[in-house]
């Protein structure tokens, strides 16, 4: 498996699958190296992970996507650990993410050491759980 920064050539793959971001922001996130592409082998995309910054200073994982046939095989765990290591290398001491209370992802994040840090509720949406993890040196 290969994890690397997404390139402009990955745009079509991402735009067809990521319906949670404004289309015009994908190019910007690619240019800022805020999207990782996951490949089974060269030129064979199987997923992506994108992040941003909470309060403009704390890395916040916004989305992980792994194509269905590759789920449950440790791909998500590998990309999260890869991202955490990258964030540690640039000096971050804390990372964040969130998931809805009705999603299984909360258990995945907790198994990787993320702790509940709060929640919020948007109208007509399930409760959103905020999770944090301290990065140890």
Give a description of the structure:
Pfam families: Acetyltransf_1. This is GNAT family N-acetyltransferase. This protein is an alpha+beta fold and 137 residues long. It is 28% helix and 37% strand. The protein contains four helices and seven strands. Strands 1-2-3-4-5-7-6 form a seven-stranded mixed β-sheet, with helices on both faces. The longest helix is centred in the middle third of the chain and has 15 residues. It is globular and about 40 Å long.
Which descriptors would you attach to this protein?
single chain; 137 residues; alpha+beta; Aminopeptidase; 4 helices; 7 strands; 37% strand
Task: Please give a quick description of this structure.
By secondary structure, the protein is α+β, with helices and mostly antiparallel strands. The protein has 4 helices and 7 strands, in the order βααβββαβαββ.
Topology, element by element:
Layout lengths: L1 E4 L5 H7 L5 H9 L3 E7 L2 E11 L3 E9 L8 H15 L4 E7 L4 H7 L3 E6 L7 E7 L3
Parallel strand pairs: 4-5
Antiparallel strand pairs: 1-2, 2-3, 3-4, 5-7, 6-7
């Amino acid at each position: 498996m290969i994890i690397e920064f997404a390139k402009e050539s990955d745009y079509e793959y991402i735009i067809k699958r990521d319906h949670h971001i404004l289309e015009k922001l994908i190019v910007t996130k690619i240019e800022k190296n805020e999207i990782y592409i996951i490949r089974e082998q060269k030129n064979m995309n199987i997923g992506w992970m994108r992040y941003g910054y909470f309060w403009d200073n704390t890395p916040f994982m916004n989305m992980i996507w792994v194509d269905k046939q590759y789920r449950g095989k440790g791909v998500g765990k590998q990309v999260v650990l890869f991202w955490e290591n990258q964030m540690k290398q640039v000096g971050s001491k804390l990372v964040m993410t969130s998931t809805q209370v009705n999603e299984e992802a909360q258990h995945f994040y907790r198994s990787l050491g993320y702790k509940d840090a709060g929640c919020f509720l948007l109208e007509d949406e399930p409760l959103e759980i905020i999770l944090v993890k301290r990065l140890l040196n």
